[in-house]
Amino acid sequence: MKLNERSVAHYATCDSPADHAGFLRKRVERHHHHAHHHHATSYQRRWFVLKGNLLFYFEERESREPVGLVVLEGCTVELCEAAEEFAFAIRFDDAGARAYVLVADGQAAMEAWVKALSRASFDYMRLVVRELEKQLEEACKSLAACCKSPRRSSSSGRKRHLSNPALLPLQEKPVVMENGYSTWGSGGGVPGVAACPDRDGGHAKPPPLPPRRRSAASSTAGSPAPGLSPAVLESPVSPETACFSKLHSWYGQEIAVLRREWQERQKRGHP
Amino acid sequence: MRYNERELLSLARQPAEKAAEILMRVPKKGSVLKKRLVKLVVNFLFYFRTDEAEPIGALLLEHCRITKEEENVFSISFIEEPERKYCFECDSKEQCQEWIEALKRASYEFMRRSLIFYRNEIQKMTGKDPLEQYGISEEARFQLGTHKQ
């Protein structure tokens, strides 16, 4: 399968901010040799850069091109029982897919990587965005409701909000010139913004939400529809995980459990 | 550059944000418009021969530009090579417009900017950081402005 590798490599090395970066040792995966059951495990030290849902690795920190890329969709990140300390693995749902075993320099580095990688998926980001969209809509609504009440507050703060053209952003996404390069600024406002509801002849219509992701007709694993029943399958990596706070505490719990286990092992002495 | 192709192929089988049969032309000398099944999944655009289960190719949709070309046609090009265009001819101008909108929103970077925008707005309106209750306010990926590692 072809991939636009040149553009991908450019994205890896351009100066858009990385979500995490650092040295990790990557276990070298060898093919099975039928004649030998044991072969020495070796690790290669690489410079890793996480951007969005893509984990790039470079031979050196200054290398101009990545050596490899791991697409972080449909994976889980967990501590692993390697002979190495501070090891963790990226494993994929697809059975039979190889895992990436990585080793950090220390406890803090390992925890930071596991956290960053656990939250790297596109779906996670989308969940957070949707949650904030909802919150903003609610904040707009309650502000509009306050405005309509006869008891008008004379606070300058509220007046300032009403005159702020960026108050109703949900009509239009932030202006994007090129994919990933948005141009809104504090003074810029958002084009096509409707008037504040309370000026709208008393018709307080909530701003329309951006179009929802529509799943393919045959799929069962579509995006959470409004009013999704809580019985739907949930997991940290499943797109059906509709409840953001649940997803969140999930990750938090997993890390807490793993940390406890690691501390237990420490107390007992290294295996 | 090595990459986990197997996982990418698995991703191509996931439910799509958008999928359609569209005429597509790749930026190669002498290439012509061919009917392809085009499928948008997260920030990747996969394209298949219409009767095949495995995609022929994938485009990562980061740092790309989506442009309306002539009637019913849009193109995808990448920042570092703006002349190399992947062209798509739709059945109607509505379909064309829908795809342009969907693709412009498809990148992880776009989502990140939306999130930062909403976070900022909520903070201005309510005085509270909406990410604090989830304990993720300090996460690098949610910060405004550049953050060098």
Concise structural overview:
Chain A is of the alpha+beta class and 271 residues long.
The low-pLDDT segments of chain A are 152-242
Question: What count of helical segments of chain B does DSSP give?
Answer: 3
CATH architecture of chain B: Roll
The SS-based structural class of chain B is: alpha+beta
Looking at CATH, which topology of chain B would you report?
Answer: PH-domain like
What is the overall number of helices of chain A?
5
Oligomer: heterodimer
Give the total of beta strands of chain A.
10
Query: Residue share in helices of chain A?
Result: 25-40%
Going across the biggest sheet of chain A, name each strand in turn: 5-4-3-2-8-7-6
Measured between the Cα atoms of the first and last residue of chain B, the distance is 23 Å
Mean pLDDT of chain A: 69
CATH architecture of one domain in chain A: Roll
CATH H level, superfamily name of one domain in chain A: Pleckstrin-homology domain (PH domain)/Phosphotyrosine-binding domain (PTB)
**Separation of termini of chain A?**
43 Å
Q: Can you identify the CATH class of one domain in chain A?
A: Mainly Beta
What shape does the CA trace of chain A take?
globular
Helix share of residues of chain B?
25-40%
Identify the most extensive interface between protein chains.
A-B, 84 and 72 residues
CATH superfamily of chain B: Pleckstrin-homology domain (PH domain)/Phosphotyrosine-binding domain (PTB)
H/E element string of chain B?
A: EHEEEEEEEHH
GO cellular component, one term (chain B): cytosol
Protein name (chain B): Pleckstrin homology domain-containing family J member 1
Pfam family, one (chain B): PH
InterPro entries (chain B): Boi1/Boi2-like, PH-like_dom_sf, PH_domain
